[in-house]
Amino acid sequence: MQVFKFGGASVKTAQGMRNVAEIIQQQQPYKLLVVVSAMGETTNALEQLTWAYLRRQTDKDLIWQQIRTQHEQVVDELAGDNPEAFQPVYDLFAEVETILTQEPESPVDQVYDQLVSFGELLSTRIINAYLNQSGLDSYWVDARRLVRTDDSYREAKVDWSQTAEHITDTLADLLETSVVITQGFVGSTGEGHTTTLGRDGSDYTAAIFAYCLNAERVTIWKDVPGVLNADPKWFDETVKIDQLTYQDAIELAYYGATVIHPKTIKPLQNKNIPLFVRSFLQPQESGTVIGHFEKHLPIPSFIFKMNQTLISLHPKDFSFIAEENLSKIFGQFAEYGVKINLMQNTAISFSVVVDHHPERLARLLPQLQEEFRISYNEGLELITIRHYDEKTIGRVLVNKKLLVEQKSRYTVQLVVKDLGRVHEG
C-alpha cells in the first residue's frame, strides 16, 4: 500500500488534473491513497475571502466569484457529457455561499479554518469525479472525519491515537478494492469543528496517513525533478540530490526548504517508510528518495528565506538577559504565533530573526516594549547552508552585508542585507 500526494501546482488547471489522473491510473487500481492540495493559489484566495468576510468588506462576493469561476472552468473542461458526476462540487459552492450570507459568530481562527478548508474539498471532489468518469474505481473520503486534532485552529495538533483508529477502521478494507482520494491540510476536533494543520500542511497529512496505514512508501509529486541543493528561484546552478537521510531531510525542512513540510519526515522515520520526491512533469524520472541511509549530503545545500526581520531586545534596566527574561520572551512569541528562525543572545541582548508578518508583529512588539528596548531591521535574508565550507559562504555573501553569523558543525546561518536595499526601524 502506498500514499501519493499532489500539490496545488499539479492540479491548478484541467490539463494538470488530467496529468494527475494519468499518473494515478498507471498504478494498480487499489492499495493507493491519494492526498491532494487545493488548486494553485486557491488557499491564498480563500484567505483573502476569509478576511473580507470577517471585516464585512463589500468585495467578499467578488473574491468568492473569482474562486468559483476558476473551479467551474476546470469542471467544464473535464465534465464532457457527464456534468452530473461533478454535482458534489456545486454542493460545496452552495455551502460556502451559505456561510457568506451569515454573520461571523465563531472566533477568527475557527472561521479561517472553516473557509480555507474548502480549497482541498473542491480539488478532491473534482479529481475524484474525473477519475470515476475515466473508468477508475475511485472513492472520495473526507479527511476531516479521520484526522482528529485539538482546537488549536490554523496550527492544529494531531491526536495520533484517535486518528490512527479512525483511519484504519475506515480505510483498511476500502483500500483493498479502491483508490482513495482525500484532502491534505485539514482535520477536525472531537466536536466536529474543522481545523487546519498549518500552511503547506498537505505533505504532513500524507505522512499521517502513511504512518497509520503502515504504507510501503510515500511519493510527493512536485514541479521539480526531486530535492535540489538550492531553490532555483534564488540559485542559478542547482544539483538534484538522489538520496537523503531522514536526518538531513529533517534539518533542511526545519531550516525552511520549501520542497518538504517540516513535520512530514518524523512519522515516516519512526516506521522507516521511504519518502520519494518526484516530478509530475516527468513522472518517468526517479527523483529523490529519503530514507534510512548511512551517507549524509554529498554536496552543500542552500536554503534562502526572504523578507526576514531581525529583532534585538535589550533590558530597559540594563540587567542581564537571564532565564526569566527568555521564558517570558518565548511565551510572548508563542502567544502571537511568531516563529523564530534564528536566535542569538549576549549578556545584555537577545536577537531573533522571524518571518515578516506585519499583523502579528504589530501585536507582539508593543508587549515586548513594556520591558525591553527594541531595535529591528526589516527586508533581510536568512541564508542557511547545510554541510558548508568557507567557499560556499563566500559565494552567497557577494554584494551582501553580513549582520549575524551562526555556525555549528554541519550548518551555518547568515543574516544578510542586500546592499541595494536598506530597511531599518
Automatic annotation (TrEMBL):
Reaction(s) catalysed by this chain's protein: L-aspartate + ATP = 4-phospho-L-aspartate + ADP
Biological process according to GO: homoserine biosynthetic process; lysine biosynthetic process via diaminopimelate; threonine biosynthetic process
Enzyme Commission number(s) of this protein: 2.7.2.4
UniProt-annotated binding residues for ATP: 5-8
Lineage top rank: taxon: Bacteria
Keyword Transferase: yes
GO CC entries: cytosol
Pathway stated in the Swiss-Prot or TrEMBL entry: Amino-acid biosynthesis; L-methionine biosynthesis via de novo pathway; L-homoserine from L-aspartate: step 1/3; Amino-acid biosynthesis; L-lysine biosynthesis via DAP pathway; (S)-tetrahydrodipicolinate from L-aspartate: step 1/4; Amino-acid biosynthesis; L-threonine biosynthesis; L-threonine from L-aspartate: step 1/5
GO molecular function: aspartate kinase activity; ATP binding
NCBIfam families named in the record: asp_kinases
Protein name per its UniProtKB record: Aspartokinase
Classification via PANTHER family: ASPARTATE KINASE (PTHR21499), ASPARTOKINASE (PTHR21499:SF59)
Keywords assigned: Amino-acid biosynthesis, ATP-binding, Kinase, Nucleotide-binding, Transferase
Residue numbers binding substrate: 43, 120
